[in-house]
């Protein structure tokens, strides 16, 4: 056996309810079958959603605030070996190594209490640990996860001319709004909104120098609400207006003959 179960419960927690800070003497795995909310531990805040689960170590204070009705299964357990150790965080269930079916079997075993059920429960929780270890490097959405932040940055790179909100980005990668902003800036040196503006200005520079698009069209093609907003932000970032930027680098509005016209995409 790799692990030994200490407790097992399943419950539905109502929206807007709150579980105050508490700790356990063993590991706890909290699997979120439905609902949304926030759990906090080790100074970080994690936004949970269906199909995610938290791993919390013994002695770690943690709480939970639900924004939607939340169905959870939570199980306490101890590792029977010094290795491996489990990393705290919020994780996404990996379809290639699912955990929920094992947890549901545990609930059934706990209810029926057939012969040797305690040994079976320990076998099940050992299987849960193995499934987690096999998939955690690909499925982690904890504060140490680099892949999800890179995914968010790549999404901005490829869609900077579309309507993007930071709230949507945070939800897309499974973080709360404030935690996402904090992690993104820590990783890349700019807040998400500052990085988005940087990419839009960068795209605008290219269009101003290499196309004959009027400033209004450049503004729309780069995701700005209107040309007034574009001109204000461009001048703030570059120190000159878009027209001055274009002309100071040898381009004039009538240079259409030597410039290509890009295919513009409508804003979402």
The chain-level mean pLDDT equals: 86
* Tertiary shape: elongated
Question: Which homologous superfamily in CATH is the superfamily of the largest domain?
Answer: Regulatory protein AraC
Q: Compute the number of structural domains.
A: 2
The low-confidence parts are 138-146, 254-268
Question: If you had to describe this structure to a student in words, what would you say it looks like?
Answer:
With about 270 residues, the chain is of the alpha+beta class. It folds into 2 domains: about 5-140, Jelly Rolls (Sandwich); about 145-260, Orthogonal Bundle (Arc Repressor Mutant, subunit A). It is built from 9 helices and 9 strands. Strands 1-8-3-6-9 form a 5-stranded antiparallel beta sheet. A 4-stranded antiparallel beta sheet has the order 2-7-4-5, with no helix packed on it. Strand 4 and strand 5 (about 45-50) form a beta hairpin. Helix 7 packs across helix 8 (about 225-240).
Features:
single chain; 268 residues; alpha+beta; Arc Repressor Mutant, subunit A; 2 domains; 5-stranded antiparallel beta sheet; 43% helix; 21% strand
Describe the secondary-structure layout.
Blueprint: E1 3-13, E2 18-22, E3 27-32, E4 37-41, E5 44-48, E6 52-56, E7 62-66, E8 70-79, E9 89-92, H1 100-112, H2 117-139, H3 147-159, H4 166-173, H5 177-188, H6 192-210, H7 215-221, H8 227-238, H9 242-248
Antiparallel strand pairs: 1-8, 2-7, 3-6, 3-8, 4-5, 4-7, 6-9
Helix pairs in contact: 1-2, 3-4, 4-5, 6-9, 7-8
Summarize the structure in short.
Helices cover 43% and strands 21% of the residues.
């Amino acid at each position: 056996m790799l692990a030994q179960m200490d407790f097992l419960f399943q419950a539905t927690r109502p929206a807007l309810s709150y579980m105050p800070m508490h700790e356990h003497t063993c590991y706890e795995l909290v699997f979120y079958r439905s609902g949304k909310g926030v759990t906090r531990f080790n100074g970080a805040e994690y936004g949970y959603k269906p199909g995610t689960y938290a791993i919390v170590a013994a002695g770690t204070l943690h709480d939970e605030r639900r924004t939607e009705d939340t169905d959870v299964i939570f199980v306490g357990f101890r590792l029977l070996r010094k290795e491996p150790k489990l990393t705290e965080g919020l994780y996404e269930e990996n379809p290639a190594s699912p955990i929920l079916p094992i947890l549901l079997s545990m609930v059934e075993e706990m209810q029926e209490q057939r012969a040797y059920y305690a040994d079976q429960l320990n076998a099940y929780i050992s299987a849960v640990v193995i499934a987690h270890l096999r998939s955690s490097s690909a499925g982690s959405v904890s504060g140490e996860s680099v892949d999800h932040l890179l995914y968010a940055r790549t999404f901005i790179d490829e869609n900077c001319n579309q309507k993007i909100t930071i709230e949507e980005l945070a939800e897309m990668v499974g973080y709360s709004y404030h935690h996402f902003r904090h992690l993104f800036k820590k990783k890349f040196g700019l807040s998400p909104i500052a990085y988005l503006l940087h990419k839009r200005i960068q795209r605008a520079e290219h269009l101003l120098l290499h196309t004959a698009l009027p400033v209004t069209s450049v503004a729309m093609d780069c995701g700005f609400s209107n040309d007034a907003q574009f001109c204000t932000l461009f001048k703030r970032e570059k120190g000159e207006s878009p027209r001055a930027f274009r002309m100071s680098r040898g381009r004039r509005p009538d240079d259409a003959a030597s410039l290509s016209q890009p295919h513009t995409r409508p804003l979402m």
